[in-house]
Amino acid sequence: PTRIIGDGGKVVALECDEMELGTPDESGRRRPVPVEGSSFQLPADIVIPAVSQEGGDVQSLMQSVTTVQVTETGMVPISGTELRGVRGFTDLLRAASIGEPVDLGERVIIIGGGNVAVDVARTIIRLGIKDVKLACLESYDEMPAFPEEVVAAAEEGITLLNGASPKRIVGKDGHVTAVEFRECLSVFDAEGRFSPVVKPDSEEMYPADTVVVAIGQTVDWDLFKGADGILETKGGFISADRETMVTNVKRVFAGGDVVTGPDV
Questions:
Q1: Which InterPro entries does its entry note (predicted)?
Q2: 147-155 helix and 115-125 helix, angle to the nearest 10 degrees
Q3: 127, 96 in Cβ contact below 8 A?
Q4: Is the dihedral of CA 231, 236, 238, 243 positive or negative?
Q5: What are phi and psi of 143, to 5 degrees?
Q6: Residue 39 near residue 2, CB atoms below 8 Å
């Protein structure tokens, strides 16, 4: 979208440009760029702006929107996450959605048991990768993902590793080669608090060329320029009312993983 077209104070259309993949940037990524002379108009009665994670900060966003949810992919607190081949899910899903080539190797392990993790796994196997494993702490029946999504993932050929607690990510020459898991006996304690219990001496290694962490998202504090004074919890998340999503900064709202933390 390039501009909203109005007539007499009423929205009548949204002007857009066609997009194509540009030249690779310093990181090797090809981001969408407008095609010159490709502008077209979409008739519209209502235009609802949706904020993406591509650029901007809270100060600039507050000029036009009233609610902001700002996150980046959360990482598991284990050794080896710095290795090449260990990545979050947001960039991967973005690349796949626009047809950008994604080099994942032949063996992929996704860590997470929610709907996002299942979505990532199904996206990857549709890229033609045969060895795709989805590992999560929960048992099959306890997985937070929708049951029908889990069933569909298994039918597509994704291997489910239930009750698998990641212990460490192993690498060679700076690149991931495997993930070591332990058997998770329970995820929550008697009071419902997140407190995984693992079985001693239950380590098992699974080879991997790529590890995708899809356990949730954490706060990207770099985007909070212009929202000075926003309260932070001891765990490093945004302090906000769980029901209303109101923070202590006017016109800044927060919800989801940036408030509750990722499902590690």
A1: FAD/NAD-bd_sf (IPR036188), FAD/NAD-binding_dom (IPR023753)
A2: 20
A3: yes
A4: negative
A5: -60, 135
A6: yes
Residue 187 to residue 207: CA distance in whole angstroms: 25
Q: How far is CA 130 from the centre of its chain?
A: 22
| Closest residue by Cα to residue 119 from 86, 84, 146, 95 | 146
Residue ranges and CATH numbers for the domains of the chain are 1-48 (no CATH), 50-74+216-264 (no CATH), 76-215 (3.50.50.60)
Which residue carries 């929610």 as its tokens?
Answer: 114
Work out the average pLDDT over 141-153: 94
Q: pLDDT class for 33, splitting at 50, 70, 90? A: confident
Task: State the CB neighbour count (10 A cutoff) for residue 23.
Answer: 7
Q: What SS3 string covers the chain? A: CCEEEEECCEEEEEEECCEEECCCCCCCCCCEEECCCCCEEEECCCCCCCCCCCCCCHHHHCCCCCCCCCEEECCCCCECCCCECEEECHHHHHHHHCCCCCCCCCEEEEECCCHHHHHHHHHHHCCCCCEEEEECCCCHHHCCCCHHHHHHHHHCCCEEECCEEEEEEEEECCEEEEEEEEEEEEEECCCCCEEEEECCCCCEEEECCEEEECCCEEECHHHHCCCCCCCECCCCCECCCCCCCECCCCCCECCCHHHHCCCC
Q: Map tokens 């209502």 to a residue.
A: 46
The widest CA-to-CA distance across the chain, in whole angstroms, is 72
How many of the other CB atoms lie within 10 Å of CB of 197? 12
pTM for this entry: 0.63
